[in-house]
Amino acid sequence: MSGEENIDFHFQRIQSKAQNGVIQPILTDLYQITMAYAYWKSGKMNDQAVFDLYFRKNPFNGEFTIFAGLEECIKFLQNFHFSESDVKYIRSVLPPNTEPEFFHYLENLTANDVTLYAVDEGTVVFPKEPLMWIEGPLPAIQLMETPLLNLVNYASLVATNAMRFRLAAGPDKTLLEFGLRRAQGPDGALSASRYCYLGGFDGTSNVLAGKLYGIPVRGTHAHAFVTSYTSLSDVKTRMLMRKDGSAEVDFISLCLKYQEELSTVLPFLPDQVNKGELAAFVSYAQAFPGGFLALIDTYDAIKSGLPNFCTVAMALWASGYTPQGIRLDSGDLSYLSHMVREGFNKIANRYDLPWFANLNIVASNDINEDTIHSLNQQGHEINSFGIGTHLVTCQKQPALGGVFKLTEVNCKPRMKLSEDVEKVTIPGKKKVYRLYGADGNALVDLMTLPNEPEPKVGQRVLCRHPFQESKRAYVIPAKVEAIHKTYWVNGEVMQPLPPLTELRAKTMNLLKTIRQDHKRALNPTPYKVSVSTGLYSFMHELWLEHAPIGELS
Amino acid sequence: MSGEENIDFHFQRIQSKAQNGVIQPILTDLYQITMAYAYWKSGKMNDQAVFDLYFRKNPFNGEFTIFAGLEECIKFLQNFHFSESDVKYIRSVLPPNTEPEFFHYLENLTANDVTLYAVDEGTVVFPKEPLMWIEGPLPAIQLMETPLLNLVNYASLVATNAMRFRLAAGPDKTLLEFGLRRAQGPDGALSASRYCYLGGFDGTSNVLAGKLYGIPVRGTHAHAFVTSYTSLSDVKTRMLMRKDGSAEVDFISLCLKYQEELSTVLPFLPDQVNKGELAAFVSYAQAFPGGFLALIDTYDAIKSGLPNFCTVAMALWASGYTPQGIRLDSGDLSYLSHMVREGFNKIANRYDLPWFANLNIVASNDINEDTIHSLNQQGHEINSFGIGTHLVTCQKQPALGGVFKLTEVNCKPRMKLSEDVEKVTIPGKKKVYRLYGADGNALVDLMTLPNEPEPKVGQRVLCRHPFQESKRAYVIPAKVEAIHKTYWVNGEVMQPLPPLTELRAKTMNLLKTIRQDHKRALNPTPYKVSVSTGLYSFMHELWLEHAPIGELS
């Protein structure tokens, strides 16, 4: 291998690695580094800390969240290393009197001394419970806060958004992610494609996401393709090979024959359909005779696009191919999809071709979750939604407010107080159990002190609201599940990191254990995350100990 | 250099290249590739096309947009190449009967045959006018659509958002971007830091952005740092070297002395301040004696944080150092900032230290543009804003709707019609001029046919609304500027790509030429983008020619 090939080889390898999202610890907030120095300087570099990563409120006014981003967090720990050039830069932005030994400390820092516990990627999670917690030397973990939050926040947000679209559309619709051009940067787009698939989408338009993550890729043509043709004379060849390879047919003549026939079926005026559009459809069909799906609204969806599509579709059928359907990208999608289906039905009846009635109708005009609910109410004939901007940028709420809070130092609990009860942290290490009812549905999540006995199947356990004294409930679980696993310890990955397709299937299954009323779009019921009596007493004693007593004056 | 070092070297080099955002053409929508094949197959691979990249509506209910992302677009053209492995993947997702010559075509495709015209990065731009247009072989340009849109849309959106925050805060406030943890993926965060700086921010917390783009980085410490200390016994050393290096002082004793003194000035009860917080501030001051800025709201900003800060600040002053100030991250920022300033004033008066009254007050609690306007109305004492989520995710509108439309093929104009007039494209190649008044303010932008004479200084020119016949105005420009430049031709970059700091200064200057009423937050006046009479007639003739005649029934 020559030197240049060598570079090229590594370029490919590394580039896709970077595109896979493996980030370096220098992608952090400066204050993590200044804090690390202050910890180091005050002799706290070996203090053993515990941090919880959690969020305070489900996104999108919903009552559930899909946890995502874990595999990238593990890869981040595996690759945790400040390069020489990173340290050189850090040195340049810290004060000149910063002790040089600190930079050696940074250079030699790895994630080998930290332990990460997490729920599985794709798990349905709720506010206040740790999605992950991490134990180890205080400054090292402090340096991991920002990248871990960055990797979890958007991944979980967009996976949850995708799942909300899936719940809105129902299980039988095809959902395609078309967000690349409007996503927040190139990597924002890649993350969107990956985690929308995890959250229940069926495919993406993003070719690189297909290559990197094995997501099915989909796409046909745009308006520009249609407007680039003006008449059938733009089409290079009249011919198309029949599917069985038996002969070439004069495809243009075949189209013109069907155009005349169909004008009495749909009906339309052959001189009113756009000739450039017909030429574009003919060209596209010649290139993809087995995958003909046409965008019909460049000029007029019903007067021009639909007849032109049906014309070419029938000519393809006569040549042995099965056309796929149409796409609508503007206008009243309910009305237009009904009109298109009616046209398909007429042709199905006239030619006795039942499949023609079932051709695909894809819709893709700036669709959000509410659009789908509204279309469901109005009625529509759409089989497949292509969704971009609103899905990938999570327009309803473009950030998940994940936080990373210190809960313990050297086995002593830590608690951040706040006048806002929502911002008070639950101190110390905790265990979290999901308690299920006899019907298989999750009833409640229960956080306990680590040394408390675990809840037992068939035995009554008291679940308390973490902050409101009077809110308590007894639960007799039919199944008890500790939701966290050790994912990373002593520099080793301890759990399988399943491929995306497997994660997707698992996520869809896990969601079934969450009751419908927690998942509905309008006024969902909150799912309860509770604490044991032991944890309740522990945190409230600590709270009283630390809270200053006010003075009324 | 050993093999392993070699790999490592390239890893660093390539990784930061990828992080610089140089993206490959495979980061595209599949339909660009299927269209390219259909073009190729119907003999249109050498058709000469022109595409305009523009947007239809300013973001955030505003009336201006900052154009950004150009340098990355140029780098994308420079690096435009489908690798062998990309082509292998594309082959695997296209139908098996796709002609193999197409894949050779893809492998050999470069951007050397395309020409890119653009406005300078940082230019203030308006709806409907091309930010860039690109000429060259139809399939090649089609393959550039998605990456170019991805690179321009978010960059321009977030730069515009940053500028709105700058306009809200005024020129004298320090604005810091703190969005990394909530941004849409790692690269979303890097792009945010870069383009927020371009749009008028002063710095970022993002260390990698500092390293890559030379943006000033800022940051001190978090709540976790404070809660990790419980008492002064957690502090490793009592000592601090005086700034002049003359002697070490017993810094803890000095702090305790000032604590007692100050308790009569502010006033506060020394047994009510949190001891862990004091220890944390002492530790931080020992690590950064010249950069002491303390987060004061972990326990109680006024009863604990402020006295603890002032205690340590006075001890630093007595040791020769100047403290920096405080940060507030919760509560009523107007009220708290007044309370803090009042405390600073008391100390300034008591010790005759005028600089103490002017210490920095940084605020960083989930601030958006409206918060700043509201704080301005209420009055506040904040010097510096740290802004995260709302800034980087552009919560008010998380996507710019940039589009890329075909306007010409083989010198013949193309027009996309739509029932929505906003979506009708302005066909053909155009020239765009910005016409200025005698006061230096921009009056109107004027699009003309390429062969029309350019507007002349001092001569009356008719500017027409592109769609509404009756809306016309005569303008006598005091200055005329053609806003586009040739940026890329024959594989060469034709214009300097200035460093980020220079672009930032230029952007701030360019904004001054836009009248205040176009920039205000509430009900801004739309800036007019007009067409010449020649272009008006040209597009309306073409429109009538293509639009189907409706039938009322």
Characterize the structure shown:
The structure is a homodimer of 553-residue chains. The first copy, chain A, is an alpha/beta fold. In chain A, 40% of the residues lie in helices and 17% in strands. Chain A has 2 domains: 3-162 and 398-546, Alpha-Beta Barrel (nicotinate phosphoribosyltransferase); 220-382, TIM Barrel (Alpha-Beta Barrel), CATH 3.20.20. In chain A, the strands form 6 sheets. Chain A has a 7-stranded antiparallel sheet. In chain A, strands 7-6-13-12-11-10 form a 6-stranded parallel sheet. A 4-stranded mixed sheet of chain A has the order 20-16-17-23. In chain A, helix 11 packs across helix 13 (301-318). Chain A is elongated, with a radius of gyration of 29 Å. In chain A, 54% of the residues are buried. At the A-B interface, helix 1, helix 2, helix 4, helix 7 and helix 8 of A face helix 1, helix 2, helix 4, helix 7 and helix 8 of B.
The CATH class name of the largest domain in chain A reads Alpha Beta
The oligomeric state is: homodimer
Strand content of chain A: 15-25%
Helices of chain A, by number, come to 20
Q: Give the strand order, joined by hyphens, for the main sheet of chain A.
A: 15-14-1-5-3-21-22
* Computed CA radius of gyration of chain A, to the nearest angstrom: 29 Å
For the largest beta-sheet of chain A, the strand count, sense and barrel status come to:
7 strands, antiparallel
Domain Nicotinate phosphoribosyltransferase C-terminal (chains A, B): 429-538
Pfam families (chains A, B): NAPRTase, NAPRTase_C, NAPRTase_N
GO molecular function, one term (chains A, B): glycosyltransferase activity
Domain Nicotinate/nicotinamide phosphoribosyltransferase (chains A, B): 324-423
